[in-house]
Amino acid sequence: MSEKTVEINISGIVQGVGFRPFLFNLARKLGLKGYVLNRGNAGVRLILQGSSQKIEKFLKNLESKRPKISFIENVEVIELDTDKTYETLEIRKSEQGRGKSLTLPPDIAMCENCLEEMRNPEIRKYFQYPFIACAQCGPRYTTVTELPYDRERSTMKEFPFCKSAEPESCLAEYSNFDNRRFHAQTFACSVCGPNYSLYEKNREKRDWDSIEKILTEAASRIKEGEIAAVKGIGGVHLVCLAEDDEIILKLRKRKGKRKYKPFALMVPNFELIEEDFRISKTERELLTSFRRPIVLLERKNSNSPPLISKWVAPGLNNVGFMLPYTGIHYLLFDFIGKRPLVYTSGNKSSIPMGIENDKIFDQLSHLADFFLLHNRTIHQRADDSVLRVHGKKIKLIRRSRGYVPEYLPLPFEVKTLGALATGPELATTGAVLRRNRIFPTQHIGNITHLETYEFLRDALFHMKNLLQIKDSEIRFMACDAHPAFITTKYAEELAEKWEIPLYRIQHHFAHALGLMAENRIPKDGKIVCISTDGVGFGDDGNVWGGEILVATYSGYKRLGQLQYQPMIGGDRCAKYPARMVASILLNALGVDEAKKIFDILDLSKDLEYKQEELHTMISQFTTAQGKFPRENIPLSSSTGRILDSVSYLLDACNLKTYRGEPAMRLEGLASRGNAEAIDLEIQVKQEKGQYIIDTSKLIVDIIDLLKDTQNSKQDIAAKFQIEMGRVFANTALKLAKENDVDLIGVSGGVAYNKAFSQAIKTVVEKEGLKFLEHHLVAPGDAGISTGQLIGGLIQYGGQ
After folding, report:
1. Could you confirm whether domain 3-91 is CATH 3.30.70.100?
2. pTM of this prediction?
């Protein structure tokens, strides 16, 4: 039987997933000779020698038997003309190959085999050892410093394998091709380290010689009502019992600004929450996937005693749950029992989580009662990812651990070597372009402090370095159109430094571009995009946020919008919804009629400076004489501000203590309502070739509905959400017909509202048009950096 030699190049997620051991064993069992090696971010290369039949069988089994967490994008097979004979099969030292992609997977939740070993007292080195892992699970992105993926290029280099002659030593397991830890890079044992220690808040280390004693003490203190700071894969959590109002209120008091913002919970299994929360098949699959995200689950309208404190997510119908994903999580439940635990990010408001132990102490000494910290370096912080599900579609809210560094492939060819985007200013991510792939960073947060700015910078350059993009290969920068954003100024600095073009992409157009790309719209495609959120800098200098765009990749026309409303006092209208209501009523009715309604609503009680503040607002409005915008009175078409106003009128929220709170509380109220019980229709008019959705009449109509005591507030809330979706959808349908478009989509932060987005989908699909929605790119501002890169790419030339 004739033999041949082939070179096989495999690209995709093929490093850090046990792929080389898989390839080695697959080839070994077929009797093939040669070698396997990692090639930086270019993937994996094999040189195999053997019969044509065996090589064909190898290629056939490659896809069907690959590790589940791997992803094969392309397999290239080249037959080599060589006289060289290979006597052995080996895994060779990785080389610094360079490619257009990234071969590294996200951090992977603990597998069932490792969990079983961790709970088995007969396996002494792994029993109750929190850092147990194998080739199929464990940290990846948060530990890797550079590619190719090997232990010496990860933070595990600080913990060399134990090298005893015993067959169970880590080095022996790593070298044994029949062991599932064969060539696994980030596993360890209690002999090698890393290890956990328990500290008091004064940084005193408790001198215990076993993890069992540490866990016993930690569990006991948590059960007694204390709050623990627990360091994990990508950062630190504050952990406490979730059932007790007093404990949750203590945590809220210590957090200060986090008066009502919801906390995420971790539970050991579904059985604990099935009675009180709805869990769909899709949600179950996500919760148990290797990603282990936080999934927002809807409460049941149950009369049973609540499982968790009402202070976990005050006023909301959704609670975020996740399952354990690393050893310390499972072990704490083993010692505490089957009880829900708060697992919220351990950080000061608007400051990134500390990842060095000293920083963790500095940040959390006034928040935590004790600290459970390990001695492994976290190279990249990564918050827990957060999402919700509409039907079967995922809506990413915070895309981080478990998703990063996966990429979005563009639906058209791109030759541009590299580019960077800096994102917006709130809920920021950055993003890196490598030819036709976009790699968003992990969740960064609000760029309002130096620490968050430095986090964005470090995350962008880490992604750039993993992709092995040289500074000279960066062809352009992209950023938001807002000139005052810190992210805009950072993009300007880099563009000047590298002497490359800078493209400023309008916020809502960026939303549309991300929507188009992830739905694989071709380069010459066109859509109608309903782009709704809280705030975005408009082309006319006003605040946009309720827009209907007819968009292509190369540009857009804004042909529909919410009516402009004055925001007297600017951003204070976002914090105090009563100010926004007052602004709208003054604009709609004039001073005399508006004042009558102010008295009926007792509106001044919900302003910071009460009656004096209301008098000042009226004076500012009168001075403006209807000529807006002007100082302290910008104009806004924001959907977010209308949601805030309705939320206030329906007593859902009178003060915004966290981003999106009024709208989220309104959704919670609406979940208990019956939309069919209310008669409400939102009007649309045409002005200068634009469709204008009348929000003045809408607010007045809702106030009129409230005058009838037969109308419940939850019913009005339910009707309003659906009607707002319908008016956007019907207006988009008109524009689609007028512009010969058969694709209508929704983007922006308001797309997270299930009733709103589903109402749009129902209307669009009933008319026979295709509805586009997000499932890979975050609908909110976290997806903006992706759209910025696409917009910049087209302006650069698309090549």
Report:
1. yes
2. 0.93
